[in-house]
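ok so heres the complex, two chains, lmk if somethin looks off
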Amino acid sequence: MSVRYGVEPERDWNALDDDEFRALVRAEFEQHYPPALRYPSRRLLWHEQSGWYLRMAAKGWIAPNWPVEYGGLGLSSAKLLIFFEEQERHGIARFQDHGIRMIGPVLLRFGTEEQRRRLLPPILRCEHRYCQGYSEPEAGSDLASLRTTAVLDGQSWLVNGTKIWTTMAYDATQMFLLARTGDEGPPQARISFFLLDLTTPGVTIRPIRDIAGEDELCEVFLDDVRIPAENLVGEVNRGWTVAKSVLGFERIHVGSPQLPLSGLTLLERLAAARGLTDDPAYRDQVAQLRLDVAHLGDAHEQFARQLSRGEALGPDVSLLKIWATETFQRIADLVIEIAGPAGGSAGEVPVGTDQIRVLSAYYRARPSTIYGGSSEVQRDIIAKQVLKLPSA
Amino acid sequence: MAELALDSTAGQDDLLRELAAVVRAALAGEVGKDWRRYGELGWLSLLVPEHRGGAGADERAAAVVARGMGRACRHDPYVATVMAARCLAELPASPGVDARLRPLVDGSLRAVLAWQSESGDGHEPPSPAPVRLTGGAEPRLSGTAWWVPAEDADTYLVFADRDGVPALVVVEPAAAGVRVVPSGAADGSAWARLELRDAAATDVLASGDEVARALCTAVHTGALLCAAELLGLVDRMLELTTEYLSNRRQFGRPIGSFQVLRHRAVDMWLQQRLTDAALDSALRRFGAPNADPTARALAVSSAKARASATALRVAGEAVQLHGAIGFTEEYELGRYVNRALVLAAWLGNARAHTRRYDRLAAS
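and the predicted structre for the whole thing:
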């Protein structure tokens, strides 16, 4: 067996107390992260940030959430949260890290030993960078109705369909995707989970320009694409379970106060530039938003404590996603309001003595209530699973 | 105290859960007819240190009791009494202080603080105090204390000012020159306006900065516990609403199956959970050994601002989702709505605390 995943661990991180661990992580980021890449206003391409992440890979820090024996840092949930908090606090850009965040854990839980040996090392080396292939033109919130099909043909699956809203597919090397493989039982029981090499013939990627003028979102066409049989993860027709299983930790992450906090920073900077800092009407509004963000932080901490006690998160964690993103939107709306005539300006514009990208929060806030399960879908989940309200 | 002797090997969170169950069971049962029962249960002395004859528990424990009071929609002046006890316990021990503190926490004396001015927001002690103290051997009081949370107390502990120095003075309602003027509250209880015209003071318990500090701690504690009581109201209003949505049928189906109403119920729940998180965090920060006065005030304002706003919002939504029945006196919900109106306004409403939070956070 003796496969060496990643590099030798430096030490037992979980043995440190939380503050000590936080200080070590912070020091590492402060000393080595390129200052020019802090808090980028758009998603960075791989070649712009590969230096940093290859350094992390060489250091053995690329997969903080993976077990030590598979090349990760093996952090407990609480330590992991600290790691990500420090990453956000320092303004470190994320790369296409679905491989680290999702595919690693998926393979550890549902993959075969052969799949782990073959697929984990290239993720650790950042050679395989995954994008997500869930949504389709006819399957958004109603994901289970997806139409992409996969038919077993000899030693490979023949895949046909269209994936959409894939972030920066052109900068990724692999895609994990859901496709229909059966025609019996409920829609969820006819779906399988595949890993696709994006250089495979039949894959066409088309960027979609968004209202912010960016080309981050993509449509991915799959025409008679062959996926080797060994790249199906889990059992045939059980892909829904695989897809859902890894969302737990991701959900607490997406509901961290980081997004709305970045909005508040922009808001206060703009208010200062416009001479509004002490305006009473503005103060009342910003005070309310500050409390909204503070209480998001309080709620986030409650869930983090739950994780650190070793308890699983329930469907109520959707609270974080709803409140984080909707608060972010209210902040972004106030940014535009206090910008006055500059509220419709594209790009960075002079405001007072400052240079400000006025609409940056707005354009990040709008899709946040749509991706990762829209606010409405999250509310449906809570109504059914938490409040147990009756269906028709 | 015997009834508070919970299993001390459990963690604090477990202890609090256990206390919540005890409170709930007690309030559903016999407690409430007789105020002294609260004293026997040890609920009134939670914040009094052990060496002063109390339970030496922290604000989190008292908040559990207050939340239970809210959930049961009790009108008893629990929070007001704990505030008075806290204020006395913060003062150095003396025969005068101890003679009031002991019966206060065993439930045999009903005493509340009288400290508010007419115009203040009620989230912090006014300066100067609303009542003037004069005279040496025979001290006299003149002025009016507003928003006193009981019109039938045995004793009032009056926040007074003598030439710029704050003092805490005992006043009996029957004494000469004392007028207790009741003023109706939305929930059927009454505020008192304590009008003092050259009134005889029974005892000057303490004076100087220690009085201002003790009162400030008491007011902060009161606002935190009031937030907890509001959250208890919210708990029950949400419960009533989800039950109603599940059982009430219109157009041939339970109205809780309509997505608009489901989402509105979720938003009520969301505010409840945010309030719970805000209060939990505030209680931890308030009770931290190294908390400075600003950090404590921030914690209090954070929790009370959210709790007041949530209670009024959830009350309004609960009435709307119930339809006309929710507006009737007969149905249970109405009592909660009226109680929410009273407590949301008491000790600083959402607006007062939001503004103070902003002021303190900026400094």
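quick notes: Residues 1-9 of chain B have pLDDT under 50 and may be disordered. thats all i got rn
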